[in-house]
Specification:
4 domains, 2 strands, 16 helices, 358 residues, elongated, mainly alpha, 61% helix, 434 Repressor (Amino-terminal Domain)
Length: 358
């Protein structure tokens, strides 16, 4: 219309003024297509650098959690749980699968994949791919996932003597898995000792039936009983300390001194090795599909090397464990290294107190 004053905006890339189109519709943020493309390339480059600093592709980390959620759904199906519970588990799997797709695209883009390649893999148009997995949407989804996971991790009851207890809530799937691994480890030690169940019961002043239930996984014994049983069978209780905590649903404080954090990670790996029947290095190497050498496996289990996450997750999987269950322990080791940069804010080591009965 004649006499209307033209509207001007500032280009987000070159910071030059440009005339803004009038009328309905989305307003332009850049003065030209060239500026918009340059800005997009810079954003993609920044995301690539951020991803390069990550210890592991984001998609793989989410896939590990997706594995645990899928197992929970399968267990719920086998247990014959209610439709409401089955649908809740299925919803968790579907939601995590959506997050995985977002992370997988993000990983691919950070390593140089073009939008045309993403579109071909997802069987959508390049325009749809750009819209569905734009930088802002990816960031929003992953922030939402982080918030959801943080809410789930909140303790149900206040901390007691250095441990967050799950109180009267049912054990998590991770706790059930740890309980089964603990029983496997105790059973292996018992078989290797050559003692009969009755002899074990007499030494520990327990009934043979109770010992039998412990070894079969029907009962998770208190820590003093666990220690006595392990020592009687020639084992080291420290190797089972983390499995015991996890089996009882106990969550230690987030901060540890470096030696303690490293020891807890080592105990978790040694416990899984014991639960697997202490397979030989060659057997583990084969189970890792050659990703771990026998020397590396020996050094990790002996505590001579602190493994990276890819080595840790590969070893855990080769031993029949769940990487998602061990990841917090691995992260704690690296977290304590960061804390050491500021000694005044360093971690305060707290005692681990085990329950006297179950």
């Amino acid at each position: 219309m004649a006499g209307t004053t033209p509207r001007y905006d500032i280009c987000r890339y070159c910071q030059e003024r440009f005339p803004q189109a009038s009328g309905p519709g989305r307003k332009k943020e850049y003065c030209s297509v060239d500026c918009r493309r340059k800005a997009q390339r810079e954003r993609d480059g920044q995301l690539g650098h951020q991803q390069a600093r990550s210890a592991l592709p984001l998609g793989r980390r989410i896939a590990e959690d997706l594995q645990a959620l899928s197992a929970a759904l399968l267990e719920a199906e086998y247990d014959g749980r209610s439709l409401k519970e089955l649908l809740r588990c299925a919803g968790d799997v579907a939601r995590e699968a959506e997050y995985y797709m977002t992370a997988a695209v993000q990983d691919a883009r950070s390593t140089g994949a073009s939008w045309d390649q993403v579109a071909e893999a997802a069987q959508v148009s390049a325009t749809t791919a750009r819209t569905r997995w734009s930088e802002s949407r990816v960031k929003e989804r992953l922030q939402r996932r982080s918030a959801q996971r943080a809410a789930v991790r909140q303790p149900i009851t206040p901390p007691v003597e250095g441990l967050d207890s799950v109180g009267e809530q049912p054990l998590s799937q991770a706790a059930e898995r740890a309980s089964a691994k603990l029983a496997s480890a105790l059973s292996h030690l018992h078989r290797a000792s050559g003692l009969t169940i009755r002899e074990v019961a007499e030494h520990l002043s327990l009934s043979p039936s109770y010992v039998s239930r412990i070894l079969s996984g029907e009962r998770t014994p208190p820590w003093p009983t666990t220690c006595s049983l392990v020592e009687l069978c020639g084992g080291n209780p420290a190797e089972l300390s983390v499995l015991f905590e996890s089996a009882h649903g106990l969550v230690p404080p987030g901060r540890h001194a470096i030696p303690d954090a490293v020891a807890r990670l080592q105990a978790a790996l040694q416990g899984l090795h014991l639960a697997a029947g202490r397979p030989k290095l060659g057997v583990i190497r084969k189970a890792s599909r050659g990703m771990l050498s026998s020397q590396a496996i020996h050094e990790i289990l002996a505590g001579e090397m602190i493994p990276g996450w890819e080595q840790t997750s590969t070893l855990v999987t080769a031993l029949g464990g769940w990487p998602a269950d061990v990841r917090p322990l691995w992260e704690a080791v690296h977290y304590t290294f960061l804390l050491c940069l500021d000694p005044e804010e360093g971690p305060r080591q707290l005692p681990v107190v085990y329950p006297e009965s179950t």
